[in-house]
Write a structure and sequence with these properties.
Length: 127
């Protein structure tokens, strides 16, 4: 699973970086969604992130509403997975636009591993 996850993220990071390089060189492949979105710029990507996040919220609410006898409905679960995939994907595009990759985020999550969120929050210097 971990290898598969790394491989999927590595391929996506590399594809996104290559789309970004081509946009910077002025070549936008008409069949590339990523290149077209990156060419539109930061605001277009950020708008997509907002939309996809909202769609995740709505799909989760739908899934919860359609629990019957304590069981989730597979159709709503699949919809939720699809919406989260859209959000992750657009987050990777956003990272690429800012010269970052999934590795940067995984590094940060690794740094936080085992750290209680409550303890971390309490350790923050109060202004
Ligand atoms: N994982 C994805 C991926 N997920 C979603 N999408 C696209 O994201 C777009 C937006 O999805 P929405 O559901 O929000 O659709 P929409 O509201 O109609 O879209 P918009 O009108 O807002 O663009 C759709 O065109 C999807 O096809 C993706 N496009 C590409 N990838 C990956 O990125 C790689 C590079 O893609 P290209 O640059 O298109 O070659 C691909 O090989 C895939 O691995």
């Amino acid at each position: 699973m971990s290898n598969q996850l790394n491989q999927i993220l590595e391929v996506l990071d590399a594809t996104i970086a290559s789309r970004r390089a081509s946009v910077q060189e002025g070549n936008v492949d008409a069949l590339s969604y990523v290149a077209k979105l990156m060419k539109k710029g930061d605001d277009a990507i950020l708008k997509k992130i907002g939309e996809e996040a909202t769609e995740v919220v709505m799909a989760a609410k739908d899934s919860r509403t359609n629990v019957i006898e304590g069981r989730f409905n597979s159709e709503y679960q699949a919809k939720l997975v699809g919406e989260v995939a859209d959000l992750w994907f657009h987050s990777l595009v956003l990272l690429g636009q800012f010269d970052l990759t999934s590795k940067d985020v995984l590094g940060e999550l690794g740094r936080r591993e085992g750290m209680s969120g409550i303890v971390e929050k309490e350790s923050r210097v109060k202004e």
